[in-house]
Hints:
The protein is mainly beta. The chain has a single domain, classed as Jelly Rolls (Sandwich), CATH 2.60.120. The chain has two helices and 13 strands; from the N terminus they run ββββαβββββββββα. A hairpin with a 2-residue loop joins strand 3 (18-21) and strand 4 (24-27). 31% of the residues are buried.
Amino acid sequence: MNITECDIPGPLIIEPKVFGDERGFFMESWNAARFAEEGLDIAFVQDNHSRSQKGVLRGMHFQNPGPQGKLVRVVSGAVFDVAVDLRRSSPTFGKWTGVELSAENKRMFWVPQGFAHGFLTLEDDTDFLYKCDATYAPQHEHSLAWDDPDVGIEWPLGGIDLQLSAKDAKGTRLSDLEAFA
């Protein structure tokens, strides 16, 4: 497994070892002992699966209180996946990092607690899987505005017909949300 740090501390790009031949491939997407050896000693409590069509933007979500760390990956299609640092004490507060995840590149992305998370689907029928280290608590869920100019996420929107939920269309600006300590 190859782990790459992002330009802000916390999120990680994880490239698993993939063994392939004419029959297909095999990869280990989670192994608690192996990840712990790499400094990711995480106790996951919930797995989620979403399917989206091209142009769906989900996010930028976070829970406060009760933040979730998420290990995310794509098993069909592709997304542009983004994490925004919401830790006020962090020197990278309000900064974002993004990575393309796809069935083809088989990358995974670790989004730690204290970050808003979201993604834009780049292909139809994209299946997105994620493991969470805390359970979903809808009463504590919030949305950072996906297009907040103070954050400045550079979404690859060229030629994409954007689709947002009503909740995500009304996200809160960074300057107005209750961030983490």
